[in-house]
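Objective 1b: paired records.
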Amino acid sequence: MSARIAMLAALALTGCAPQAAPAPAAMAPTGKALAIACEGRDGWSDPAPPAKIHGNTYYVGTCGITVLLIATPDGLVLIDGATEKAVPGILANIRALGFDPKNVRYLLASHEHDDHVGGLAALQAATGAKLLARREAVAALTSGTPDATDPQREIANPFAGATVSRTIGDGEAVGLRDIGLTAHATPGHTPGSTSWTWRSCEGGDCRSIAYVDSLTAISGDAYRFTDHPDYVATFRATLAKVPTLPCDLLITPHPSASNLFARLAGDARLVDADACHFYAAGAVKRLDERLAKETAAQ
């Protein structure tokens, strides 16, 4: 018996054996396979194969909606749940990577719309995981109805509410070893919009991954951003904040918004320290255009 095995055996006997992240399947599907499978398809529930992104981070969502799996020594984390219809495919993707859905410890969310969180209740039932959310998102996530201040409330679809086990604040870490998984309040697209950052290492190549929420100023027909200056001010504060996030590798809730599939396929740069800056700059331009259009229509 080697010294390492003997040490692990001794630790196990005392109940102190170190935990390790589950080992993924040896031949995980590639980013190229994901890009090919989703070519010409971007429906919210269109099934897609899983793919490794970097280190402990994997894509397990659909062709149109990002769902991320993070493997940590303290259990698995899922960020977002796509639609309820997409849940069987998400669970299948987790298993295809060699992980057990029952080992999902936490569910997290970007923003409280059905295309991103409609599947959370079903995922919670399948995994037993705890859902963490910012206070501003709790009511919508539990009721399945967007907040009254949500610009898209008029057009948003209802979804099955999930149980929020714990609220998490802006800048608060989830509390998992080694990765520094942290919540960032980024309201604007919705009142409860939340972005997430963490550290992912592949050998000695460690990167700060930023899952930055949607930054689009979209609304129902009756909503005018110019009628809500406080909300616009909050939105602009978010757009100023995003470029300051630790962001070597940007991922967005709609993969197309960050050209994710092409990047995973090797057809564009996967790692780009300026990505969050450019993502926010584009959103500033679109918000300004939206406000100008509303003002011109008065």
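Objective 1b, second protein:
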Amino acid sequence: MPGIDPNLPFHPLSIAVLTVSDTRTEETDTSGALLVERLTTAGHRLAAKAIVTDDVPAIQAQMRAWIADEGVDIVVSTGGTGFTPRDVTPEAVMPLLRRVMDGFSVVFHQVSLGTIGVSTLQSRAFAGQAGDTFIFCVPGSNGACRDAWDLVLVHEFDSRYRPCSIAGQVPRLRGICA
């Protein structure tokens, strides 16, 4: 049965949060703040937080900096995954990935179907690995960020989750987490 094994130690991950938006500021970035609150409450460390515009070079520059930073295990981005003309997060991030985590999109859409119905079709949420850094890109709404964190990522990022979690694939935790 999948779930948390209370006999195992918790190993916090270092997670960076990127908000992609032409309009949000630190004061109005509620989805980025929600992700920060969720990850710190879960016991993880906020490695960094930034807001960039819906611009391919800006998104790629921030992602590349975090991919190169050994202090960042995971990046979670919020915003830019829809179908408006300015939504370019997939176009910016996909070329940086060496591997795509197809299952994340599938699971995210399954949980979103339960909360927003077929409107989940308008999301291009995805995940993958760039270098040794895992990147998860979710929509910019608070509801989508809640769905992504509360129903998927909270488990995927917990080193005690069995049969496995992403923690075992983070280089500094390989051999420590199964």
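Strands lie at 3-4, 14-20, 45-52, 74-78, 99-100, 126-130, 133-138, 161-162. The radius of gyration is 15 Å.
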